[in-house]
Amino acid sequence: MSIFKGSLLAAGAFALSTGVAAAQTTVKWLHLEVNPAQIKIWEEVARDFEAKNPGTKVEMQFLENESYKAKLPTLLQSNDRPHIIYSWAGGVLKAQIEAGVLQDITAQIADIKDTIAPAALAAFTRDGKTYGLPFAQSQVGFIYNKELMAKGGVDGTTIKTWDDLLGAVKKLKAAGVTPLTVGGGDKWPLHFYWTYLAVRQGGKAALEAALAGKDGGFESETYQKAGEYMKQLVDLQPFQNGFLGFKNPQSTGFFGDGKAAMSLVISTVYHQQKALAANKVGIPDDKLGFFDFPTVPGGKGAASDTLGGINGWLITKGAPKAAVDFVKHFVSKDVQSRLAGANFLIPVVKGADAGIGNAFMRNVAQNLARSGYHQNFYDQDLGPSVGRVVNDATAELAGGSMTPKQVAKAVQDAWKQGN
Amino acid sequence: MNSPAIRRAAASGQLTAVVLFLPPALLLFTLFVVLPVGEAAWYSVYNWNGFGRPSNWIGLDNYRYVFETRAFGLALRNNFLIIAVSLAIQLPLAMTLAILLAEKFRGAVALRMLFFLPYVLAEVATGLIFSFVYDGDYGLVAAIWRFFGAEPPHLLASTQTSMLAILIVIVWKYFGFHMMLFIAALQGQDRNLVEAARIDGASRWQALRHVTLPLLYPTIRLSVFFAVVGSLQLFDLVMPLTRGGPADSSQTMVSFLYSHGVMRMRIGYGSAIGVILFLICVTFAATYKRWFMRDD
Description:
The structure holds 2 protein chains of 2 kinds. By secondary structure, chain A is α+β, with helices and mostly antiparallel strands. Chain A has 2 domains: 26-138 and 309-370, D-Maltodextrin-Binding Protein, domain 2; 140-307 and 382-418, D-Maltodextrin-Binding Protein, domain 2 (3-Layer(aba) Sandwich), CATH 3.40.190. Chain A has 17 helices and 12 strands. In chain A, α8 crosses α16 and α10 (248-256) crosses α11. Chain A is globular. Chain B is an all-alpha fold. Chain B has one domain (65-291): MetI-like fold (Orthogonal Bundle), CATH 1.10.3720. Classes of the chains: A alpha+beta, B mainly alpha. At the A-B interface, α3, α4 and α16 of A face α12 of B.
């Protein structure tokens, strides 16, 4: 028995020593990207890194967006967890930090800290400790089809206020053009309306007050107003027929096919509307416009405030040092410029935006650079439980089954239950 | 323990059988049924997001929250709707077809195959196929509506029609399975009984009504049982079609559990739904067996 045990130990030691001799470290990198063109660049980045760091292997793992969210808690607590995971920051990140499943990498990234946009880095930092690095930002805004807008006699560049937008919708409807397309079946595309209206109405202070439970929390005047403005739009029936059944890619394709004049989207839709159009061409650059979310009368938020996403890579507990090195490589100016040059993202590294290839993305980058207050998506920022209620309730407001008052109350109730 | 009984059992070899065959089954049952249910019951009294160990004890609040959620009522209503449609439409349809197709005639086997095919399809594939069929812009339904010059509806996008659309798919998918149950039962029946009745002067209808149908009762009870259990488990058909929406109008108990518990990282709340679902299942299974299947 003891001989058997001894030989086992020896075998184990042998396996370990050979492992060290070959110095083979595998970095497991879990991503959600579905665009083959972008994945191709990412793979090249990984191979680059392997070439520069002999003995390191980067293994790409993929999960679909929704299944990733469902699986993550289990995944992170298993022994076989990936070393690098995708993150939208916000409430989910907070839960992960509190659970102690992430690694504090503050010391390791001290040397590159200053190259990254402070607001983006702050999203992955809590109590002075950094748990990951941002690699992209995005802005929510209206994309529009210039041809269809012209049919309704509307100029997208003149839409500055909420009333301008309502007027444009009326004109487009009168001309027989579908004013807006939205992936209402996925719900979150509808939450952009309500949350962006809240950003315009109340600014940063309103959300902070709501989180602190002041002025009735999410039942404050800001959120009531946001709901009422959204209802004004909904009452015009501006969306495509059956919008509550459309998934987001379907709606993006609908826009790409030239069937609706406008859509409130994340800036990355610039690419997706092409890929998801029936003819794979979509709306060409010269016919595609973009305008910022309109302002509301008496709103406390600045017109330059933005709603959008901050995407990053988190390092999980127990990950090898090489994982941090790889993420640092990923957000190096070189790689960021390359991805920005191919118009895949708005970079977070200073100076990398010089490489942005076209006017559309450059405009978004400028907006983000000018923004004094960049609000992360509510459904990420508030965490999954409250965030999904925001999505649900705003979808119901759009469907006419909830009033603005009920929406505000539903969100506030969820907030109270969760905290 | 009284020893004579054990001795008797040992003598007949029963004890050996029990010692040999019970532990594996008991172990598996404990591991995969009793423990998870117990765990869910434990989680359900905590406010827990799935990370670390549950520590925030909130008593029965999760249950209160579940009962206060409007989606819970809708899910329950939809489960009852599915059962009602299964009983009122699917079962008679399956039985009629079975009685017709149990006879031997040219094409009977081909027709049986045809009706059974939907059941063979994976649920998710079925859901995807029907999401195309129901599509209000490009789908088959839209094409039919346009043929009659009407504005095509978006069945899956309206709170009024989403559940109707799903019910149609359910009947389409499962009637073949129930038909097969009835065909198997009919073929197992002693044909002499019907023949005897006919010789005694019973009409075809009377023979069907008084001989064939009573002999089918055990199968009917089984079919109802499957319909109810199927309704309580329905999930993978709903997800690709509507994900329970719009506005939770097509939520079933399980899709409600998934979208409100798992996707929101509210494991405690989700577990409370799980426990409620478990209690419904157990109550149903026990009473059904006691009242309706005791002779089988």
